Amino acid sequence: MSDVSGTERYLRLTVELTVEVQDIAALQAAALKEISHPDADLDDDERKEQAELVSADDTGATALQWLIEPDHVLGLIEHVEQIEPREAVLGVEPSDGPSDEDDDEDEAGHDHAGHDHKH
């Protein structure tokens, strides 16, 4: 692979995953443990603020954000060492459950274009 300047190629991965929260208290406790960990790059005020956000969010979305490492998405790509993560943006939001598209395997192909989200 060439390291010549100006030959960089970038690909943006988009992954949509719906999870079922089976124990909100355990999810929040795990996130609070991450927030209080010494390796978390937070000062005392930030720790307190994040802990309050996690505890106040009864959907579990804020807690789950603390437990996902976006770079781990590269684990989905097997047998490739010639890529390096450059930017990771992670968003977690409440969902009404799996979309109808997930249940319809006979739909024509896999459309990976953006979908309208109802709020």
Give the averaged pLDDT, no decimals. 80
Task: Identify low-pLDDT runs.
Answer: 104-119
Output the number of helix runs.
4
Estimate the strand proportion: under 5%
Q: What percent of the residues sit in helical stretches (DSSP H or I)?
A: 25-40%
Radius of gyration: 18 Å
General shape: globular
> What is the total tally of β strands?
0
Distance between the termini: 44 Å
SSE run: HHHH
State the secondary-structure class. mainly alpha
Oligomer: single chain
Q: How many strands, which pairing sense, and closed or not: the largest β-sheet?
A: none
What does this molecule look like?
This protein is mainly alpha-helical and 119 residues long. The protein has four helices and no strands. It has helices at 24-36, 44-56, 61-65, 100-103. α1 packs antiparallel against α2. The chain is globular and about 45 Å long. 8% of the residues are buried.
Properties at a glance:
119 residues, mainly alpha, 4 helices, 0% strand, disordered C terminus
Describe the secondary structure blueprint for this structure:
Layout: H1 24-36, H2 44-56, H3 61-65, H4 100-103
Helix pairs in contact: 1-2
